[in-house]
């Protein structure tokens, strides 16, 4: 994952741990995804792209598929 970290630093601001904020255009996103596909281990690694827009939030993944986890809350 060190190679992924270094790649991401070239595209965005490192916020915390493995979280980056990237303000990139469509062409840059294509280049980033292409680079990440070459260095990710598809069964072990996962990179989530979260587009936050005015109308909706879209989440796509590279590597392991993205699946929302169900969190149950217990209040005592």
Task: Describe this entry's structure for a reader.
By secondary structure, the chain is α+β, with helices and mostly antiparallel strands. It has one domain. It has 2 helices and 4 strands, in the order αββαββ. The strands form 2 sheets. It has a two-stranded antiparallel ribbon with strand order 1-2. It has a two-stranded antiparallel ribbon with strand order 3-4. The protein is globular. It starts with a helix and ends in a 13-residue tail after the last strand. 4% of the residues are buried. The mean pLDDT is 86.
Q: What is the CA-based Rg, rounded?
A: 14 Å
Structural class category: alpha+beta
Distance between the termini: 39 Å
The overall average pLDDT, rounded, is: 86
- Biggest sheet character: 2 strands, antiparallel
Spatially, the strands of the biggest sheet line up as 1-2
Helix content: 25-40%
Total number of helices: 2
Q: How many E strands?
A: 4
Strand content: 25-35%
Secondary-structure element order, as H and E? HEEHEE
The figure for the number of domains is 1
**Spatial shape:** globular
Q: Uncertain spans, ≥5 residues at pLDDT below 50?
A: none
């Amino acid at each position: 994952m060190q190679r992924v970290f270094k790649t991401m630093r070239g595209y965005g601001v490192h916020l915390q741990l493995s979280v980056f904020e990237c303000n990139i255009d469509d062409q840059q996103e294509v280049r980033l995804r292409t680079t990440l596909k070459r260095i990710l281990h598809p069964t072990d690694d996962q990179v989530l792209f979260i587009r936050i827009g005015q109308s909706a939030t879209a989440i796509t993944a590279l590597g392991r598929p993205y699946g929302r986890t169900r969190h149950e809350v217990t209040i005592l």
